[in-house]
Amino acid sequence: MTGAPLGTGDADYTEQIIQLLEALFHDVISVRNPEIDPVLKGKQSIPEGDRNLLLRTLQAHGVWFRLLSIAEQNLVMRSLRHTETERGPEHVPGTFANVFTQAAKTGMTADQIQT
Q: What is the mean pLDDT of residues 92-106?
């Protein structure tokens, strides 16, 4: 890990986040559960009948998928904040600013919204 700033493009940022998460994930696995690391990297299969290794590997996959989900949520929020900064809050779908802007464009009054 270098400490270099993350890329400015969305694709670069996404790729760098995933690579960073994967590296950190494997760092933790290599310390906490080193015997499953080769399985997770596809270098070794789970021996038949080794239910304990299978269970720990499945749990690690579950953690990995949760990490990816959190990263995806981060990327969505980053995109929304970028839109808000560049174009204004009225351009962020689902915000009050967006809803009220759309209502105003259709001629809806404040009284109509309040009732």
A: 92
